[in-house]
Design a protein that fits this description.
Blueprint: E1 29-33, H1 38-49, E2 54-58, H2 65-72, E3 81-84, E4 87-90, H3 92-103
Parallel strand pairs: 1-2
Antiparallel strand pairs: 1-3, 3-4
Bound molecules: glutathione.
Glutathione (GSH) binds at residues 37-39, 78-80, 91-93.
């Protein structure tokens, strides 16, 4: 699939991808990313491949300024930033480590 055909990350404001409902024990993953971000695409592809439900926000569109402020206020300067519920996982590389750990 070419980059232009990919559903994420594009001009997506908020697109829930939820094959299964999240539970309290396993809260929803959230990716804060933006268009043209290679690591954001990789994070989306990884969660999609693993069939893990997630919300995706493009934090560089004006409508999502509160989300951008939320990330910036934590001193975070790169995207993606991934959370599970309120727990900060980190960027793509931290997500890979987190999921590898969860698998083992
Ligand atoms: N180690 C980070 C690298 C993330 C990264 O370099 N992201 C780029 C965009 S793909 C970035 O945020 N660059 C700075 C910026 O866009 O302001 C990760 O694994 O997520």
């Amino acid at each position: 699939m070419g980059r232009e055909d990919r559903p994420y990350p594009g001009n997506v404001l908020h697109m829930p991808y939820s094959p299964e409902p999240s539970t309290q024990a396993n809260p929803m993953l959230t990716i804060y990313g933006s268009k043209g971000c290679t690591f954001c695409v990789k994070a989306v592809e990884l969660l999609t491949e693993k069939e893990l439900p997630f919300d995706y926000y493009d934090i560089k569109v004006p409508e999502q300024k509160d989300k951008l402020d939320f990330i910036k206020n934590q001193g975070l300067r790169t995207i993606p930033q991934v959370y599970q519920g309120d727990t900060h996982i980190g960027g793509y590389q931290e997500l890979v480590r987190y999921l590898n750990h969860a698998d083992s």
